[in-house]
Every structure is written in structure tokens, then in C-alpha cells.
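Annex B. Sample input.
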Amino acid sequence: MSIHPGHHSSDTERPGVVDRRRDEYEVLFGQAPVIFAALGGPRHLLEAANSAFSEVVGPERVRIGAPIGELIPEVAAQGLLERLDAVHRTGRAYRAWGVRLLLGGPGKQRERFFDFTYEPRRDAAGQVDGIVVIAVETTGYHHERLLAAEQRALLEQIARDAPLDDTLGGMAKVIEEFSPGTIVSVQLLDPDGRHLRHGSAPCLPDFYNQGIDGALIGEGAGSCGTAAHRREPVIVTDIATDPLWKDYRDLARRAGVAACWSTPIQDADGRLLGTFAMYHRTPRAPEEKDRALSAAFARIAALAIERHREVEASHAAQKREKVAHEDLAFVLEASTAVASEPHYADCLQRMARLTVPALAPLCAVHVVEHGRTRRIAVAASTREGRELLASSVLCDAMDTAVAGALASGTTETAQVGGPCAHSGITGYVCVPLRTRGRTFGVLTLLSTDLPLDSHTIALAEELARRAASSADNAHQFTDRVRLARDLQKALLPPELPTIPGATLATSYHPAGEGLDVGGDFYDVFPLPGDRWALMIGDVCGRGALAATTTGLVRHTARAAARLLRDPAAVVAAINDALRDGIGDEGQFVSLVYGELRHSASHLALTLIRAGHVPPLVRHADGRVEEIAGPGLLLGIGPDPDLYPCDVELRHGDSLILATDGITEARCADGEFFGEGRLADALVAVRATTPTAADLIESVTSAVTAFAGNASLDDQAALVLAAA
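Annex B, continued. Sample output.
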């Protein structure tokens, strides 16, 4: 197309100038692929344009002499006129790349991209009298870049093992955006190799996708079935007349599709994976770009499907491996959890809980103790199950089944009928708990739906075998703890005596699990002459030797105090007994020993401190005073260097004796509780005249708040309050 002749933009401009410009425009831009337009005056009247300009805006809209804003009104709202005004006003050229414009009337707009140059044109006097517009359309390049970016994004999805539905759905969306009017469908090869299954087609109606789902692969089975059969693309330009669609023509008509181009999706070895189809609403043949698009995305779909299959195969292998090992894992984890319980009843209760619902919905554990069978643990997955386990009918039936397993020492299984069946129980398995050649209990699993299979029974038997050994160890541990507690109890006063004019309170908290007898002790006992003896001490170490030493100290003190009226002499006797009675074991003892006498106005005490935590006196006014008499540990040498200390307790005053398990209790940061916090705990008591019990409560609460319940050492305290 030649340059359109135009009117000059100035009445004073000579016709020769216009003709010369027109000739120049014709020579430069007449058949050039770039878009050219010459605009005159401040209204931007179209003076000349080449064929490329006409193709972009539409030949019917090219009118020489009309303002560009009237010819292409849609650009007014997109800033183009404002930019032309600025160039005309300032005389400065404007260049821009990748400018997006929507061209066309309402409902017919299409997106285009351009690189623009707006060059001001000047008259002989140097004044701007127009603008030369030169543009290169970059829509194809822009779309190619976006398409490449979308392809990269899809490949990244595949590399990240994104779900196949997401990848195929994203691919369909990309193609439909870049090729308006196209509807994408992907079908996947069925594992049987003979049918195609729905993969992704977000813009096709559901009834259509359902109608072709499971279609047989073969000649004449539509575009996709035929393409899968032939292993080559199948182009159907008009579904209404093509014989390949005879079985699906009505379905396609209802879906509103009239053309379908299908490409087989194959892996690198040529194995069929599925089909990739592009539908259109009107009969249509593909262009070269459509074929290239189809081939490119068929390859991407192949990568996605192959990766999906690899991931699925990996998951299937993992699942098989998990199934193969889950039995062993269950038994190992369950037996480890059971073995972690140190106490007998807790051990069996943990076993019962672990079997529900992993092995069965209901579980009960029975043990034989002192010749009688009792139920020691139950577990149920629901409240109804717990109620069922408590029913008398089921208890009677279980007792009978358990007795059989105990008698035979072998696993007993049965399906349940009669009253139990009416309650919802369908079957049971009783597995004996055996250790060291004897059966001491039974693990019973009960089913409420399907019978317990051999696999479940085998797991139950293995768990019972391992748990029986753990339970037996826990039973021995429990017996040891009980023995230690009984022995510890025997080393402390069974109860505190009543002292006229005073109240007494004590606390004792053993360290750890209480497996060994602790070394902390206290005692209060009457003496002749209306006197009372009280003491608190700490034997180094734990266990049998500590218990023996504690007993030696207490018994020596009780015997010597009745014969010797001097507290220092009593403590010296204890020292002699320790040195004579423990041989080479090297047992040392810290001790506070005191004797109490009544006077008319107060309680009088004489205290002997031998290497122990200093006693404290809390006065009625809240002051706390440390009684710091010197003295060495007992059992070290012949002379502990003892110094008596006299104390008067008046109404409201209290004596507090504690072991170093309290003052040396540690918090999480390793800091000691210390004698300062002990004093603070005594001051913090709110009662006007606190009792011995009030003070003990304040001290123990403060220690627990500071260090928690776990203690590394025994903790003992004795409080005497003057009433």
C-alpha cells in the first residue's frame, strides 16, 4: 500500500513542501514492515500512513485529515494522546518499548505490543508542526517470551513433583490464553493399556469429560482414541462430518465443540502415555503455529506424566516398604514404651493403651497375684467401649477366657455368641504373658466388627512376649521401691509426739525414684525430767550403708540422751559410735541435736551443730535469725569440737532445721536455692502467729517453685513453733 496523501497542517505551508514530504514518506515507509503515521498540528491530524498502520488499526478506520483520537478512540484512555501532546508541546522525542495497547471496539478488543518512537517534526521556522510516529509490533515476540516463561514454570512444577492435576491444568490454561478459542483436553492411558482416562480439561463440561472417560483406544474412536491407536496426530476439522466421531458426535454437539486435533503423548522410547487434544467451537484446520504448540506441550505433558509415574512408583515402593516394616516398628516402639515404665501397673497399662486402636478397639490385661486373678488394666477407643468393658456380662465371659489361657499357657481365640454378641463383641484373643517359664497374666484383645485376623494375633503375641519381660522387670523394680520406702519409713519416727506449749511439723522428700534409702533423717523423742530431744541429720551416701548409719545414729542418740544430760556429751557419744561401728566404710554425718526444756515464759533449747546447715529462728515479729554455732562433721575424728548454743523460743517464735537437700536444690540454670531463699520463705508466711505446719508448707512450696519436683538429693525439714 502506498502512503496516503495528506493535507498539510499549516495554512502558510507551501504545497511543494507537502508534496516533498509525501514523496519522502513514500520512499522511506511505503512498503516498510514498520508501522508509520505522520500527524499534523496540535490535534494530531492524520497526514499520511503506510499499509502496516492500516493493518494494525483496520483499513476502514484510516481517514486522512481526521484527528488520531477520532480514528482510534480506544487509545485515548490508554495515555497515547497525552504522550503525543507532550511531544508536540515540548519538542522532545519520545521512545518506549513493549507498550501494551488494546485495539478494537467493545467486545472485539485484542491485546497488542509495540516499540514506539514519536519524533517531533519542525517547519522552516523551527516550530513543531507535527509528529512522525514509527512503531514496530512486538506482540509475537512478547507472546513467545511469555509462552517460554510459562513453559519454564510448568517444567519447574514438574521438577518440584507438583500434583499432576495442577501441572496439566496449568498447561491447559496457558494454551487457552495464548490461543484464544482453543479448549485443551489431556487424557491418560489406563493401566490396562486399552482405555483412555480423563486427565485434565477445565473448560470442557463435566458431562463431556465423563462421557469420554474410559473410552476404548482404537480406529474410529474419535480423535483421541484414534491418535492413541495410530501413535500419530489426528486432525479432525469438522466433527459433524468426520467418520472418526460417529460414536461421539452427539456428545460433541451437546458440548459445543466442532473441531478436534489430537496428538499422542509418548515417552522417549515411544511408549504411549496419553493424548493431548485442542478443541474449537467452529470447524477449523490447524495452522503451523497450532501444530508447533501442540507438539511442544505434548512433550511437556509427557514429562509431567512420566515424572508423576516415577513419583507414584516411588510412593508405592515406600508404601510397600512401610507395610513390610510397620509391624516390626510397632512392636519395637510399643515394647520400648512399655519398657520405659518403671512401675509394674504402669507398664501393663501402657501395653493396653498401645494396642488400642492399633490392634483392636478394646483391650484388657489380667494378672495373677497371691493365687488370684485380677484385671489390672483396660483400654478402649471410645466412651461406649469403656462402658462395655465394665459390663458384668463381658467381665464374666472374659474371666472364663482368661482362665483358659492361664491354664494352657497358649493363645486362645474364639468368635463370640450369646449375650456378648448382643453387646457388640464379635470375637477375642487371649495371649498369655509369660516370663521365666511361668504365666503371670493374659493380654485380651476384643473386636467389635471384623474378627481379629492371624496378622493381628501374631503382633499381639510378639508384643506380649516382649512386654512380659518388661513387666517382670518393673515388678521387681516396684518391689524394690516398696522395700526402700518401708525401710525409709522405719528409719523415721512413725508419728510426731505432742510437746506441751509447742507445735511440730516435718517434711521428707526422697531423691529420684526412691529406689535406695536416703541419708536424711530427723527424730523427736521425750527425755526424763520433762525434757525433749530433737535432731535432724544427713548421712553421706544412700542405700543399705546409709540406712545402717541412720539407724546407728538414731538409736545411739535415744540411748545416750537418757543417760547423759549434756547435749554435747550425747553428740560425742554418737561420734564415738560412728567411728567404732562403721569400720573402714568412711561414713560421715552432719547433725543438729537439741534438747528442749520448759520455763515459765518460754521454751529453752540447747543446740549442738556438727557440720550441718545452720538452724534458723523465726521470731514472732517476722525476723529470721541464724544460729551459727561451730562444729565438725561426725565420724571424722575423735573430737568433733562441739559448742552448745542456747536458744529461747517465746510465743510466736519458731525453730527451723533443714538438710542441705533444701538449701542446695538447683533451678534449671544451676543456681542454688540457698539459705537466703530459705529465710525469705519463712518471712513470707502471712499468718499472724504461724504454726509449724504453716512454715513447713511455705518452705516446701518455695523449693518446689524454684527447683521443681525432681530433686538430686533428699530433702528434710523439722519445725518447732512455740505456741
